[in-house]
Amino acid sequence: MFNLYYNAFKKELMNIVLIGYMGSGKSLIGSHLAKKIDYKFIDLDQYIEKNEACSISKIFEDSGDIYFRKIETKYLIKCLFENNNIVLSLGGGTPCYNDNLTHINSINNTSIYLKNNNVELSKRLYKSNNNRPLISAIKSEKKMIEFVSKHLFEREVYYNKANVTIDCYKKDTDAICDHIISNLN
Ligand code: S3P
Known about the structure:
Blueprint: H1 2-10, E1 15-19, H2 26-37, E2 40-43, H3 44-52, H4 56-63, H5 65-82, E3 86-89, H6 100-104, E4 109-115, H7 118-127, H8 141-159, E5 164-167, H9 173-182
Parallel strand pairs: 1-3, 1-4, 2-3, 4-5
Helix pairs in contact: 2-9, 3-5, 4-5, 7-8
The protein binds shikimate-3-phosphate.
């Protein structure tokens, strides 16, 4: 059945851009989705790390967040302009800085917001926050929920500008991908 949807959108050149808060599963869902629809997968954080030969944490540590946001925009534009038919997973902050949303929502792209709630995201992030510079200093689950709730509230203004929103709460990766595919046209 999904071949039908796939054939319908494959005729056109299109990049699928996944956005959402840290821990929303952008990378996992992105690579799974790309396999399912036979697109190339790019994870923007990994792309930055490869091109800069440096981890995201080290970039934040050595050069600061403003520098990171500058190169994040540069690599976002490079990825979008040099590729067609990719699934691109962004970092949680990518849509919220510079003019990134204009590029994300430009004509050949379909942006998808992978939505989840603050408590679920906080739980996931508390379990695995080590390599995320924005939250690596948070040492209790309560503080994580406080931080994520406020931060997500601020960022949803940007996430809500996506072309499609998928509610991911309590859905597995495969179901989320099928839901995304059924929203592509
Ligand atoms: C960030 C999210 C991270 C990474 C960087 C900043 C953010 O990506 O880009 O640490 O501002 O939310 P993930 O969303 O993949 O963790």
